[in-house]
Amino acid sequence: MSTDAIVLLKNDHKTVEKLFKEFEKAGEEAYAEKRRLADSIIEELTVHAYIEEEIFYPAAREAVPETKDHVLESVEEHHVVVWMLSELLGMDPKDETFDAKVTVLTENVRHHVEEEEDEWFPEVRSAMGRKKLQELGQRMLDARGDAPKNPLELKSAKA
Ligand SMILES: [Fe+2]
Ligand SMILES: [Fe+2]
């Protein structure tokens, strides 16, 4: 399996997108399923944001200093997402705001992922090269287990 950092991040994006689609398909009153999906979304995004903030973003900023503004905006986007995740954590799926929060979260994450993948990753890939991306990806895999359970413990929560 490839440990290319960008491939790993894109795989995470796909996993989360699948969960969003399942949520969109879930019936209005499929409360248990919606709660389970929200838990998976929270877990996936917390781990993903953790490895980006701890490892990928700083390395990318160093490798491509011109993208500093992009990195800073990305962290602010994480900040918003992380607060939404923390609100969804433990929220009753019967609460009338539950679906609305997941919908806005989905819109935010889709926008964020699009910017990462279309505007930023290609620049990072050409600046870093294959070998460096492989090493970075390995570090990211090793760090997944250190991610916090609570999204508010991510660095971007305080950004
Ligand atoms: Fe991100
Ligand atoms: Fe990402």
UniProtKB/TrEMBL annotation:
Matching InterPro entries, A to Z?
Hemerythrin-like
Pfam families, per database record: Hemerythrin
Q: The Hemerythrin-like domain covers which part of the protein? A: 5-123
Its domain of life reads Bacteria
UniProt name for this protein:
Hemerythrin HHE cation binding domain-containing protein
